[in-house]
Amino acid sequence: MPFSKLVKFFTGRIRLISVKGDSMHPTIKNGEIKWVDYSKKTLNSLKVGDIVLLKNPFGKNLIVKRIEKYDPNKGFWMKGDNKKPLESTDSDVFGFVDLEHLKGKILF
After folding, report:
1. How far apart are CA 82 and CA 31, in angstroms?
2. Of 1, 13, 25, 74, which sits most exposed with the smallest number of CB within 10 A?
3. Using an 8 Å Cβ cutoff, are 14 and 37 in contact?
4. Which domain holds residue 32?
């Protein structure tokens, strides 16, 4: 692990989460444990294709989605990887989300 990631780990900016649900299947399966980078530097350098942990705009829970589009005027368009229509609640339902909703980047 590079030194910068060790620093993030020891300062609590990288933590483990357990992913619940199938919205990111087949990329991330229900029950998988993933590292999340919560640092501001990482959040400010997100790009299309990154998988992130974000606050559900319709609830208090956190959800995992992939950034599909970015529009500087509107925000981030989030999608689940699961192609079954009822398996993922994403931007097709809640629209663009602001950076403030994004909590961290999923690390592989």
Report:
1. 15
2. 1
3. yes
4. 3-107
